[in-house]
Amino acid sequence: MKSIQFKSMFFMAMMVVLVIGxxxxxxxxxxxxxxxxxxxxxxxxxxxxxxxxTYAQTGTKQxxxxxxxxxxxxxxxxYNSGSPVNVAWLISPSLxxxxxxxxxxxxxxxxxxxxxSIDNSLExxxxxxxxxxxxxxxxxxxxNFTGPTQDSTRYVYVNSGFIDLSKYTGxxxxxxxxxxxxxxxxxxxxxxxxxxx
Length: 197
Known about the structure:
about 200 residues; mainly beta; 1 helix; 13 strands; about 10% helix
């Protein structure tokens, strides 16, 4: 008899715990679907087709388009450049930051497995005063993101995370800046660029 009473009490206690632990539907938050302001998969054969600007700040090497198994991407490598240092920029088309709010940039990047020096780097910058022509007259602000390191697995894309651009107004450009320190150094790839709001 005690065993039956104990089992009944235990069962009732477990039911109370289960009911108390449930979350009502009204307590659950559902993320609002994001709108896309800008999208680039680099599936064209020429970077400049969609308004991207390539600029060799130091050395002669520039960003180019690559493709592997039908998937396009932007790439840069100093390999066989003949220059001791190469610094190149891939600048986005202009974005109008005044017609929406809450903008966030997202992309994926990887290294090719031959980036062995900490002097080689992939960086992200933004400018709200670049006129599309005069690179040196613009101010460029460095922005943090999650990207590949020299120890990253080669050709494995790293998600940048959502980079908040909502404080900027007017016309905005973002840019990928890469530095290769020798003509034998490896390179980087960028793909699946999105700006959401």
